[in-house]
Structure to design on (301 residues):
């Protein structure tokens, strides 16, 4: 296992953090990024993420730049994928990092950290088979965590392997006044005026195994309707399939106009930041409950 000693006190002027996973994973990496900012207040910090997840770190004062890999090019394959890989690697190398922090354990991530040109490279001991010897591509390695160790702590372990003290494990998600104004307009547009408490229900997820049945969601909504006034926007999943729509239990027993969900992005032009800002907008005074099938709804809320 490579280990070059603590990096604290070293002249680190440029840092690149890789977190090419899903929305919630990117948000969960923010405490580790904050710890790097505390360790090197004057350094430039860039974060490399997959397209569709960058909204989780927009406006984060710990981050100077976000480098985005277009997942659609990867999924399409062929020459387009290799052009995108080349463009992505070019942006990584142009950042000229002194320290590369790879927060995932895949082969591709290890290779990208090495090809970044960083003098120091922190990563995670591989927990599964893959490229032989890829651990040698790092100068600092965190031991393989237990299966049940929280993702925030796993990411903090990686930078801890380089001698960086952990920061506050609280997630860091930031809103602008524009976010808040748009959220207020969004809520008013679906029948939730200022000052009215509301519940957020997210019945859908990109990962279908997380989703409850229509009947289960209808029962949940019926319970909420009996106890609270619920308003919002009709919910759709990531494939634009309506959720709990036209279910007789919803129409007859619940009596609510619409549902509030992150998935309104599909039909109403509502982005992830709009939904997160809507939840944050006067949340302490207005939100009664938040219920969802996916962790990100709870992480940012």
């Amino acid at each position: 296992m490579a280990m070059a000693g603590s990096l604290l006190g070293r002249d680190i002027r440029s840092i690149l953090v890789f977190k090419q996973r899903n929305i919630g994973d990117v948000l969960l990496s923010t405490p580790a990024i904050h710890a790097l900012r505390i360790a090197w207040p004057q350094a430039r910090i860039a974060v490399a993420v997959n397209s569709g997840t960058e909204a989780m770190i927009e406006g984060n004062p710990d981050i100077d730049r976000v480098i985005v890999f277009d997942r659609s090019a990867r999924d399409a394959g062929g020459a387009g994928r290799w052009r995108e890989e080349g463009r992505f690697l070019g942006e990584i190398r142009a950042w000229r990092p002194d320290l590369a922090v790879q927060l995932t354990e895949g082969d591709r991530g290890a290779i990208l950290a090495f090809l970044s040109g960083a003098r120091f490279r922190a990563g995670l001991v591989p927990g599964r088979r893959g490229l032989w010897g890829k651990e040698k591509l790092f100068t600092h390695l965190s031991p393989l965590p237990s299966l049940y160790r929280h993702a925030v702590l796993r990411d903090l372990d990686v930078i801890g392997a380089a001698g960086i003290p952990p920061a506050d494990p609280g997630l860091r998600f930031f809103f602008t006044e524009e976010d808040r104004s748009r959220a207020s307009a969004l809520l008013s547009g679906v029948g939730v005026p200022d000052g009215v408490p509301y519940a957020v229900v997210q019945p859908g997820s990109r990962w279908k195994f997380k989703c409850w049945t229509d009947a289960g969601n209808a029962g949940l909504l019926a319970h909420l309707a009996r106890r609270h006034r619920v308003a919002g926007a009709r919910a759709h999943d990531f494939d634009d399939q309506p959720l709990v729509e036209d279910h007789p239990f919803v129409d007859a027993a619940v009596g609510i106009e619409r549902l509030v969900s992150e998935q309104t992005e599909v039909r109403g032009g509502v982005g992830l930041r709009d939904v997160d800002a809507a939840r944050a907008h006067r949340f302490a005074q207005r939100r009664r409950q938040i219920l969802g099938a996916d962790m990100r709804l709870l992480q940012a809320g």
Observations:
- The chain is about 40% helix and 15% strand.
